[in-house]
Design goal:
The chain has helices at 4-10, 18-22, 25-36, 40-43, 64-74, 95-99, 123-127, 154-158, 187-198, 212-224, 247-257, 452-470, 476-486, 527-541; strands at residues 55-61, 77-82, 85-90, 104-108, 114-115, 143-148, 174-176, 203-208, 229-232, 234-235, 261-265, 273-280, 286-288, 294-297, 303-309, 320-325, 331-335, 346-351, 357-364, 375-379, 405-410, 433-436. With 542 residues, it is an alpha/beta fold. The strands form five sheets. A seven-stranded parallel sheet has the order 7-8-6-9-11-21-22, sandwiched between helices.
């Protein structure tokens, strides 16, 4: 994200040393503002201002183990660590010090997960054309993980098992990877209620997170618990290419390789993206999908817009910038990260005091820049003007997973405008299936509970019953194939990028397998995942 105020305050183009170059534009501005004692310019331009003593950052490193030791030696508080990334709380005045550490590639603000909501489940009957619970299958012996951004009011929904047995969610504890934000949202509580309606006999493991490093750490914890099914009705938007290789998507693939059925929301982003070819306009500007400008809505004058293009992350050489203009033609915000061969193909504007509707314009960072052959992805979370939607390639991450299952939404036989469409950026059909949304839960504001957040747990609940009925634990690809084969085709004949294989349904019991691992058996973890799990366990124990 880039704040115009910070750039304006610093004047002309900046001369950067190696540490400055490793900081994202906003953090570079924050570090310089800290030098002048004016860091509130950075803080107060955010919808949720970070603390005055510093902020959480993601540090990407070629040697994360050594980085942990170096941060500890500096007295920097490490909040989470997974794979090649460490999340740390860093004082503003020490950002350059962290960026200068050996092996550090990039220091930036964390990716923040978005709950995929649009604002006994009625969707059970819509999905279970044959009532498997009446046949004696309720998920007993199956382990289900719920990975979400908050479980507020969970105890209230669970009730008191010593007094009654009509709880809406299982009375299980929540493991907090956010270090204090379990009550941030009721979203996870509503998601759990839907899965529990399907599989009340299953054992549940609940984990809450906020950032991409916390997400991977929590996902690895669920692998340690040997769960059979994971539901994650969340997503990260326009932070990496949807080609199956992002940081969060690779973590999903690792979990699937361990025998876990992973079910996630496809996203609610269809009305928030403009996608298409980038090209030079006759006047020297840059067009996206044939247009030189895109109209974007703000939220109370707060604007968030990001641009990504199809060069590899870490190797972008086409220097593009992103500028926002108010309705009166004045500039509202600007992002101008350098791209000179070893950078990310990404620009993001965060600006305040904008008009209700702003115009996003892509410009060349240097004169004569030509993006010929590149695809662009412009994203605005407060939606675009309806005429600007392109209805393609707008999946949330990790909705681009190969081994996991991505679920879109369906209402009255049609996909709602917001439900994300495929294909993935590398051309694979997504979502896999669609499922009911607009269902009612007992939890707080979710009456009804809409979005692909509500659709995904219908498939997770079905997955738990399938594992119970088929005795096929540790075989996610078999379930994915079965699910797609039994889906009811809607929309265009065959697979498509709006409905996938069709509406998820259970029209008959699956064949029972022989020779599968028995319920509760422990899978063998890959050596790479064992190292990650062990590192995370050591850090949590310290």
């Amino acid at each position: 994200m880039f704040v115009l105020l910070c750039t304006a305050a610093l004047g002309a183009p900046l001369v950067m040393d190696a540490a400055d170059a490793r900081l994202s534009g906003p953090l570079r501005a924050a570090a310089r503002l800290a030098d002048t004692g004016d860091v509130d310019v950075f803080r107060l331009a955010r919808p949720s201002p970070p603390p005055v003593d510093g902020l959480s950052v993601t540090v990407e490193s070629d040697d994360p183990d050594a980085l942990l030791d170096r941060l500890d030696a500096l007295g920097i508080d490490v909040e989470a660590a997974a794979g090649d990334r460490v999340q740390a709380h860093v004082p503003y005045g020490r950002l350059r010090e962290v960026a200068a550490l050996p092996g550090v590639r990039r220091v930036r603000e964390p990716w923040i997960a978005e709950a995929k909501e649009r604002f006994v489940s009625s969707g059970y009957a819509d999905t279970m054309e044959m009532d498997w619970r009446a046949e004696g299958y309720d998920g007993t012996g199956v382990r289900v993980g719920i990975l979400d951004v908050g479980f507020a009011r969970y105890d209230e929904a669970a009730g008191d098992p010593e007094v009654d047995d009509d709880e809406e969610v299982p009375p299980e504890p929540v493991t907090d990877f956010t270090r204090g934000s379990v009550e941030a949202a009721t979203h996870g509580t509503a998601v759990t209620e839907i899965v529990y309606d399907f599989a009340p006999g299953a054992t549940y493991y609940l984990a809450t997170f906020g950032t991409e490093v916390e997400y991977v750490e929590a996902l690895q914890w669920l692998v340690e618990q040997h769960v059979d099914v994971i539901n994650a009705s969340i997503g990260f938007d326009n932070t990496a290419h949807a080609d199956g290789y992002s940081y969060v998507t690779r973590a999903v693939e690792a979990a699937v390789e361990e025998g876990i059925i992973y079910v996630g929301a496809a996203g609610n982003e269809n009305d928030k993206y403009r996608v298409g070819a980038l090209a030079r306009a006759p006047g020297g500007g840059i067009t996206l999908a044939g247009a030189e400008a895109t109209e974007v809505w703000t939220s109370g004058g707060f604007a968030r817009v990001s641009l990504r293009w199809s060069e590899p992350f870490g190797a972008a050489a086409t220097d593009l910038d992103l500028v926002l203009y108010n309705e009166d033609g004045t500039e509202c915000g600007r992002a101008q990260e350098p791209q000179d061969g070893d950078d990310d193909p990404y620009e993001s504007v965060l600006a305040t005091d904008c008009s209700e509707l702003v115009t996003a314009v892509i410009v060349g960072g240097e004169e004569g820049v030509d993006p010929l052959g590149l695809e662009g992805y412009l994203y605005a979370p407060y939606t675009l003007e309806a005429a600007e939607w392109t209805n393609t390639e707008d999946l949330t991450l990790p909705g681009d997973t190969r081994g996991g299952i991505s679920v879109g939404a369906i209402v009255d036989g049609l996909a709602p405008d917001y439900s994300s469409r495929g294909p993935t950026n590398d051309g694979r059909t997504k979502p896999d299936v669609v499922a009911p949304t607009g269902v009612y839960t007992s939890t707080g504001r979710y009456t009804p509970f809409t979005g692909t957040s509500a659709a995904a747990p219908h498939v997770s609940g079905l997955a738990a019953l399938w594992v119970d009925a088929s005795n096929r634990q540790g075989q996610p690809e078999v379930f994915r194939t079965w699910l797609r084969a039994h889906a009811r085709d809607v929309g265009p004949v065959g697979d498509d990028d709006t409905y996938g294989a069709g509406v998820a349904r259970a029209d008959a019991l699956p064949p029972t397998a022989c020779g599968c691992r028995s319920p509760g058996a422990i899978p063998t973890l890959s050596p790479a995942l064992l190292l990650l799990v062990a590192a995370a366990a050591r850090r949590r124990a310290s």
